[in-house]
Design goal:
five-stranded parallel beta sheet, Rossmann fold, single chain, 2 domains, Arc Repressor Mutant, subunit A, 250 residues, alpha/beta, four-stranded antiparallel beta sheet
């Protein structure tokens, strides 16, 4: 996404502190974004329907519904990118937001540069639409990159946008080890090079959804201390012995 295209992006800022909203609005508008506001969780849900934002900055502490509840309700029907704003630094709160479907979080107090950088990074990666045809990994797993669909045992698997991007980059490098830093740069952006827990968390999510036994994975393999490797399905398919043809009945 070019820098000029950010000028057309609408950001919904959800925070009950007027001072914080003004601060965020000023810095986003200086960078070319359009900004709409909400001060409560219910206002946020209304603005989501009316303003159709391209991204939501959602504070955790709101006067009616907390940010986690708003996030849960939004994710029932929308895949709009969401960045959580929180004053809490405990890992449990960060993980909870990611588990509920947040694309990222920013801890208060944050600098204008950090906030704008995170917004740009999330928009860039959620705009990506790679298409690479259909891949039949094995009898269980099929990935349709053109339709952005994953099928397991003939049933459609619902992946979050970040889970899909992670799977895409692992499959595109099937058979090769992809380091933690490479995954962070490709899936989240270079701004996230110091956030290795993102990779571990989302690899676990994918394994829970795709693996027959997540504790003993066959698709997404761990290379300890280095990164992850998607099974080399092409080589395994080539190595499979041909099934003997049945003799024709005379």
């Amino acid at each position: 996404m070019s820098e000029a295209q950010f000028a057309n992006k609408r950001i919904l800022v959800v925070d009950d502190e007027e001072r914080i909203v003004r601060f965020i609005r000023l810095n986003l508008e200086q960078d070319g974004f359009q900004v709409v506001e909400a001060n409560t969780g219910r206002q946020a849900l209304d603005q989501l329907r009316q303003a159709l934002p391209d991204l939501v900055l959602l504070d955790v502490m709101l006067p009616d519904l907390d940010g986690f509840e708003v996030l849960r309700m939004v994710r029932e029907n929308h895949d709009v990118p969401i960045i959580m704003l929180t004053a809490k630094t405990e890992e449990d709160d960060r993980v909870r937001g990611l588990e509920l479907g947040a694309d990222d979080y920013v801890t208060k107090p944050f600098s204008p540069r950090e906030l704008v950088s995170r917004v740009r990074a999330v928009l860039r990666r959620t705009e990506g639409r790679e298409a690479q045809g259909v891949i039949q990994v094995d009898d269980r797993l099929k990935i349709d990159f053109d339709r952005r669909e994953v099928w397991l045992n003939g049933k459609l698997v619902k992946l979050r946008p970040t889970e899909y991007r992670l799977l895409y980059h692992l499959v595109q490098n099937a058979g090769w080890v992809v380091t933690h830093d490479q995954i962070l740069a490709k899936v989240w952006g270079y701004e996230y090079r110091d956030e290795p827990h993102y990779v571990r968390l989302y690899v676990n999510y994918l394994r829970e959804k795709l693996e027959e036994d997540p504790s003993n994975p066959k698709y997404i393999l761990t290379e300890r201390g280095v990164g992850y490797r998607f099974v080399d399905y092409k080589r395994e398919q080539e190595a499979e012995p041909e099934k003997p043809k049945k003799a024709r009945k005379k």
